[in-house]
Amino acid sequence: MTSAVSFKQVSRHFGSVRAVDAVDLEIAAGEFFAMLGPSGSGKTTCLRLIAGFEQPTAGSISIFGERAEGVPPYRRNVNTVFQDYALFPHLNVLDNVAYGLMVKGVGKTERLKAAEEALSLVRLPGYGTRRPGQLSGGQRQRVALARALVNQPKVLLLDEPLGALDLKLRENMQEELKSLQKVLGITFVFVTHDQGEALSMADRVAVFNDGKIMQVGTPEDIYQRPNTRFVADFVGSSNVLPPDFVQRYSGQHRWGSLRPESIRVSSATSGDGVAARLVGTNYLGATTRLALDADGLRLHAVVPAGTSLPAEGEAVMLTFNRDSLHLMDEPA
Amino acid sequence: MTIAAVQSNPTPAILPGSGGMRGALSDLFWRRPKFLLTLMLAPSLLWLGIVYIGSLFALLAQSFFSIDEFSGLINREFTLKTYGDLFQAANLDIILRTVTMAALVTLASAVIAFPIAYYAARYARGRWKALFYLGVMLPLWSSYLVKIYAWKLILAKEGILTWLLAKLNLLWLLDAWLSLPVVGGNSLSVSFTGTFIVFVYVWLPFMILPVQAALERVPGNLVEASSDLGASPGQTFRNVLFPLALPGIVAGSIFTFSLTLGDYIIPQIIGTSRLFIGQAVYSQQGTAGNIPLAAAFTVVPIVIMGFYLWGAKRMGAFDAL
Amino acid sequence: MRSDRGQSAPLGLKIAAACGLLFLHLPILLIFVYAFTTEEKSFVWPPPGLTTQWFAVTWNRPDVWDALSLSVRVAAISTAIALVLGTLCAAAVSQTRFFGREAISLLVILPIALPGIITGIALRSAFALADIPFSFWTIVLGHATFCVVVVYNNAVARFRRTSGSMIEASMDLGADGFQTFRHVVLPNIATALLAGGMLAFALSFDEVIVTTFTAGQQQTVPIWMLEELIRPRQRPVTNVVAMVVVLVTLLPILFAYYLTRDGDQIAGSGK
Asked: What residues form the membrane-spanning segments (chain C) (predicted)?
């Protein structure tokens, strides 16, 4: 497996703030890679380190095996789709898309042809003569995408690309980006704070917190087997179980996580299981989300809609498969 | 060029430098942004920071020299004698006269500016708003000397104002005003009243713009809320509008005050033979050749404005600039 | 301040605002009438008769032409210097966060914040100290000193509205520093610079206070006018020149307003 991007002990400090702190990271060629984390977790700084807008304070960065420290952004065959799209307001759409080819000295006819093709690729054929100001948010985003792709980058960086779009548009774009990436085979690295987006689009996800990578893995890994309380809590909304609780069911004194959908709720008052009290129900359409109180421990369960439920305030019994109780690496 | 089969894209991930002078310079600027910054700031800093500030300090330093009364030569030894001269009664008169004029001009400008600024901020929309803006900007930028000249035409004994008052049978009023001590004189163009009118006229736009800017930030419903609560228009003005417009008025007054303090042309062309600070500086450095006293005189507006700015900053006037 | 549509101003306010605007404009309009008067010796109103002969007389006055030519040359070169210095300063101040940017802003504004007479005398004594004789260039240096701020203010305002990621986007797409400046920065600030340049030109063309101290025997238009105001020679010629000066400064101001009137551009805003 060729490494498209490789970080070795990379740090980026701003004064006393450690935006990125000794990060090791391997992104494979052709991969759709997501960097997920809350704001200020260092994911965007990592993206900017790959683009070349930031230089590492320490450590080394390679792009397709070539060292990238000290290389300015304009000499990296890496392109970015900016969060605010950063389209040039003084150029029309076609000239925006052809910009990268123009500065590389590609002739006018050739570059405009390539730009028109790129616009078709993002399903905006014939929009070339418009100004960025005349486009909707979704259209601007496609132009930004075409403007990056026309340069045939080795790595495409996307900084919260869907953040400014409304829900419906966002879902469409998720699918489109994914199929585009499959067709083109370009390595996509995208930054997001939306765990749903990261899980549904990416081949692999890195979860960031406080300038460090907490966990890297496939969406399933991250979702089913979070290695720390932070990941369990941030990715989806796992129930985080304290070591004493976990010990009773697994025999090991470690932090555990339990997905809400793995919990079964019955109105039995005795038998095997965790005694709890139903404190709230939240109807979500296909499912219902239950808030439970197990002797002071706050738990959530998700059950299919239509399940008969005891009334709020009543005692319930919770059961789950031992397999679905995941033990985390984090020390107790 | 097509965007396909990128998987086998043979281009390198890191491109070689474009080479040549330009490529090398571009890389250098990128690697050393501080160097680029220095290059960008150097010409301005050299001129403004060293030559200009240097000459200002050199000027101030001269105020601590003195002039030999017999030879007229400058004695380059530290002394406070020149400042002693500055506080002679005649010179104190000049300072007091100038400060009083500056204060009156500021007050009058604020009174005239307020309705214009208020109308422009609250009622003018679209085309009218642009018209108001230009209506203030054009006089602001029109030639300073031409504006003074226009008032020389208006205030002249045979000019349009006298003609107008004669038509209205109000000449007696003008004569009565001109016969008053201090503010009167032979005609308006050689009286303090004339000087005052021209000062107000020339600096008025500098007052309107910041007041308008301050009023633009007052939500309209605040005024309605006040009248809703039963306040009379007078009360609304006193308790709501005026306090909110005050930072703008103070910001504008910085201009009207400072510009009046330093001006030497308006009182020279329209006014009496009694001097203002600017004229005193001009004549001390020119005909009298007393550079130290001229320098000491320039310290006066600087000190006054220093205190003024300090006070204005405390009132938050700089946000309205 | 916003208020409900259709609400109209109280009559008193309307009258006060209208009177204020008339007060600002009537004196300037008066200049236009006087340019046509037949009266030579006094400022008598109403003009005894109207004539255009003074335009011809003014046209044939070499001193007027000399002053005009000097003023235009001084204004053009001062504006050029101010454009370069002001743009560089504005770019440095707005593109980077560095220690002392407040000080730089203050420094640039100082020459117009201080009374002109102080700047004038300070420069005059500096020239005397350095043994620089008064010339065309001493006038230009004086003017450039206070013209920088006008360009600077316009450029800073535009840089603030220009999305910072646009420069990164350009570099990301393979443009080096020079290409980015030529293809992205310059087109985006061009109208602001043009407006700043226009205002700087008008400011220089009109300046008299500093010029009195930095000019030798040469006369710019304002110096010529000041001379005529203090020691009038031919009043009708002064009237005509005054009118021409009003018209000449009017055009760049209107043009500058036209260039900067669109307050908000859509500089890559995504939302």
From this structure: 12-36, 70-91, 103-122, 134-156, 240-259
Residue A253 has pLDDT above 70, yes or no: yes
CA–CA distance, B143 with C211 (Å, rounded to integer) = 14
Mean pLDDT of chain A: 90
CB C129 within 8 A of CB B58: yes
The percentage of chain C sitting over the pLDDT mark of 90, rounded to a whole number, equals 21
- B241: chain C residues, CB-CB within 8 Å: none
Contact C183/A147, CB-based, under 8 Å? Answer: no
Chain centre to alpha carbon of residue A283: 27
- Nearest by CB: C187 against A51, A82, A90: A90
Residue C247 corresponds to which tokens in the numbers above?
């018209």
Residues A184 and A320 placed together within one structural domain of the fold = no
- Whether B301 sits inside 8 A of C31 (CB atoms) is no
Q: Does B7 touch chain C (CB under 8 A)?
A: no
- In B47-86, the residues whose Cβ lies within 8 Å of chain C are 47-49, 51-56, 58-59, 62
Instruction: Give the ipTM.
Output: 0.83
pLDDT surpasses 90 at A143? yes
Which of A73, A78, A45 shows the shortest CA–CA distance to A63? A78
pLDDT(A331) > 90: no
Domain boundaries of chain B, sorted by first residue: 23-54, 85-320
What is the structure's pLDDT at B316? Answer: 65
Please check whether residue A231 lies inside any domain of the structure.
no
The model's pTM:
0.81
Q: How confident is the model at residue A60 (pLDDT cuts 50, 70, 90)?
A: very high
Residues of C in contact with A90 (CB under 8 A): 187-188
For residue B1, give the nearest of A65, A114, A154 by CB distance: A114
**A48, part of any domain:** yes
Q: How far is CA B122 from the centre of its chain?
A: 25
Written as one letter, the residue type at A80 is T
Chain B residue numbers touching A68 (CB-CB < 8 A)? 13-14
Query: Chain B: nearest CA to C270, how far in angstroms?
Result: 26
Q: Taking 90 as the threshold, does the pLDDT of residue C112 lie above it?
A: no
Interface of B with C in 250-309 (CB under 8 A): 258-259, 261-265, 268-269, 278, 281-282, 285, 291, 294-295, 298, 301-302
3-class DSSP assignment, residue A1: coil
pLDDT for A203 equals: 95
Architecture of domain C69-235: Orthogonal Bundle (1.10)
The verdict on B149 touching C (C-beta cutoff 8 Å) is: yes
Structure tokens, A13: 């400090």
Does A195 share its domain with A104? yes
Do A202 and A250 belong to one domain? no
Tokens of A111: 């570059």
Other C-beta atoms closer than 10 Å to the C-beta of A284 total 10
Please say if the pLDDT value at position B310 is more than 70: yes
From C161's Cα to the closest Cα of chain B, the distance in A is 18
Q: Which residues of A touch C269 (CB under 8 A)?
A: 84
- Cβ pair C266:A89 closer than 8 A: yes
Reply yes or no on whether the pLDDT at B321 is more than 60: no
The secondary structure of residue B52, as a DSSP letter, is I
Q: What is the pLDDT of residue B259?
A: 86
Q: Which residue of B has its CA nearest to A65?
A: B13
Reading the block at residue A238, the tokens are: 């796992």
The reply to whether A148 and A289 lie within a common domain is no
The helix or strand, by DSSP H or E, that contains position B66, with its residue range, turns out to be strand B66-67
- The verdict on A30 touching B (C-beta cutoff 8 Å) is yes
Class of domain B85-320: mainly alpha
pLDDT digit string (tens) for C18-48? Answer: 898 999 999 998 888 888 888 877 787 788 8
Total count of residues recorded for chain C: 271
Per the structure, the complete domain to which residue A255 belongs is given by 237-327
Q: In this structure, is residue A178 part of a structural domain? A: yes
Residue of B150, B158, B194 lying closest to C32 (CA atoms): B150
